[in-house]
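A reminder from the course coordinator: this example appears on the midterm review sheet, so study it carefully.

Given structure:
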């Protein structure tokens, strides 16, 4: 520790901010460690939904990795999580007297109830909106499977905006359809990619007369179902799923801490979430965000920088289902009266970093403006005030500035929550650039503070 401290004083006092940031990007560009960690996390501990044995193995693995990264301490923060189990592979088959049988690539939506052991076989009613469903009413819907086939809008370059328009079908579609007596729902997977990967994601039962099973179908097969319905409106769809909740489990956030040299009681946090959906390797979502966060300290340590404020690198558990890890972290921070000045998350995939989204008032946002030009040489100078990460969001209070790394979102939803989210889709150089971008902002916040 003493050696690192000496290097800082020696190394950084003579350099201006753009030179220090250039050092960070240069160091990150030759790093192979976080890419390697992501490979092991994705390939050895995929399907690490909270509550599963794989999630615990992933937590242990990341703790071990962090213990070799020169933190002052690495520790676990315990929390209780739900354990939803998908069970046997889901089945989806179109049965048409005119067109025969067609197998579909389907998956249950996260937290859905399963069908009975015999499955459900029912006619299908295709809709594009809740309004359409409402108009059709109970008479048309009772006893049927509601098929929400609204495509994600490919004309929107901000894919998160396009996602936001259709995610309501996934989250509340089952509760909405159950009011009219639907037996189950199936949604078109939320992606603009036309392929055979079904995309899962959390759904919620809310104000519903009955908890009905909820599925997603791959986009290519959503098109087939729609086409066949146009030819045979009486066809039936057979759906079977085996998912259920098991008892809650104990789980953990993993935290690596470096005590601040000048303001040890003022905390800067950076993190990602360790859990991933149980059909995905979780490379983009969010193994990449985890290893980039570890890379923040790896990079700063490598250039001999010792933070003035306490730095915490956090691997949050359970972002995907109930966010109990993020909530636990914030609860404990409040209980201990901790002062978080800045909390940053990386959970938007690991493509080209473009900048940051902040969640703060205009006075605090203005403090970041002078930093913006420093990111221009790296194409990461998009600074907007309009939202942050889900996990760090629980730290929201008057004086904590929240933020999230913005990565190029063009392809993010090709992978999101599906079997297509694999390590092979992550580019090493862009992953490292993301880590350098996070580290550079943290360096600036640490150096200048936010007072
Ligand atoms: Zn995520």
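Designed residues:
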């Amino acid at each position: 520790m003493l050696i690192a401290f000496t290097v800082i004083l020696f190394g950084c006092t003579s350099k201006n901010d753009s030179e220090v940031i250039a050092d960070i990007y240069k160091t990150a560009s030759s790093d192979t460690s976080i890419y390697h960690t992501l490979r092991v996390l994705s390939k050895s501990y995929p399907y690490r939904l909270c509550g599963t044995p794989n999630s615990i193995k992933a937590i242990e693995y990341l703790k071990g990795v962090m213990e070799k990264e020169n933190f002052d301490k690495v520790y676990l923060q315990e929390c209780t999580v739900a354990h939803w189990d998908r069970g046997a592979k889901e089945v989806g088959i179109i049965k048409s007297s005119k067109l025969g049988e067609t197998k579909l690539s389907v998956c249950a939506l996260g937290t859905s109830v399963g069908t009975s052991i015999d499955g459900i076989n029912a006619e299908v009613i295709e809709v594009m909106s809740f309004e359409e469903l409402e108009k059709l009413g109970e008479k048309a819907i009772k006893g049927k499977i509601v098929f929400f086939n609204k495509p994600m809008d490919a004309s929107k370059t901000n894919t998160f905006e396009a996602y936001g328009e259709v995610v309501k079908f996934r989250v509340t579609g089952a509760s909405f359809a159950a009011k009219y007596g639907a037996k189950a729902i199936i949604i078109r997977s939320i992606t603009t990619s036309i392929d055979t990967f079904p995309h899962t994601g959390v759904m919620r039962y809310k104000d519903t007369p009955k908890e009905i099973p909820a599925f997603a179908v791959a986009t290519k097969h959503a098109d087939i179902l729609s086409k066949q319905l146009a030819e045979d409106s009486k066809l039936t769809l057979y759906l079977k799923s085996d998912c259920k909740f098991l008892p809650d489990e104990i789980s953990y956030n993993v935290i690596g801490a470096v005590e601040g040299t000048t303001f040890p009681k003022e905390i800067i946090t950076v993190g990602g979430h360790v859990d991933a959906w149980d059909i995905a390797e979780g490379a983009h979502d969010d193994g990449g965000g985890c290893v980039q966060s570890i890379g923040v300290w790896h990079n700063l340590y490598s250039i001999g920088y010792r933070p003035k404020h306490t730095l915490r690198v956090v691997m949050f558990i359970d972002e995907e289902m109930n966010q109990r890890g993020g909530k636990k972290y914030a609860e404990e921070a409040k209980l201990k009266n901790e002062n978080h000045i800045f909390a940053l998350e990386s959970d938007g995939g690991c493509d080209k970093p473009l900048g940051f989204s902040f969640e703060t008032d205009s006075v605090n946002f203005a403090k970041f403006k002078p930093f913006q030009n420093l990111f221009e040489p790296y194409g990461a100078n998009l600074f907007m005030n309009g939202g942050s990460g889900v996990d760090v969001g629980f730290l929201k209070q008057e004086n904590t500035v929240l933020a999230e790394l913005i990565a190029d979102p063009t392809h993010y939803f090709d992978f999101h929550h599906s079997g297509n989210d694999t390590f092979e889709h992550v580019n090493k150089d862009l992953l490292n650039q993301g880590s350098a971008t996070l580290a550079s902002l943290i360096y600036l916040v640490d150096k200048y503070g936010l007072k």
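The two ends are 28 Å apart (CA to CA). The CA atoms of residues 27 and 302 lie 7 Å apart.
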